[in-house]
Amino acid sequence: MIVMNANEYQNLYSEIQGIINDYKLGWIIEQVNNSIYEGKIVSIEDRLAKKNREKTPRIKREDYTAKEKVLLLLNAFETAVVNTIELEKEVGRFLTEEISDSQLEPQIKFYSEEEQNSHQFIFSSETINLRQQEVREIQNLLNELRQELEK
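RESULT FIELD:
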């Protein structure tokens, strides 16, 4: 069994950041970095009243470990990319069912209001099916990576 040190976790974190940035999802990294900066809240118990021996719940802020930072980034990526497929499936089902009796195409088109010559994004049943396959592959890779990190 190979144990990773803090530098190796930091390198892995940077590599994952690079991949996320390549797909123009930097907002995920920004949110994770904000969470890392804020730290995690953990519960501690402190004996305040020695006579009564009562335990008073207390909390404190701790920094994330290097491993926890990697897992936090993986979880955020999974939430933003993988978990959204359920919403997309529902939209796809709606498009297929509601438009089946009409002559309209079962798709939604998105255009940027800010850029006049921007490309459109077409959300259709076909793209949803393709994305479901891609998401399954991504989910498998994330699961494999998590298993390796837990060894």
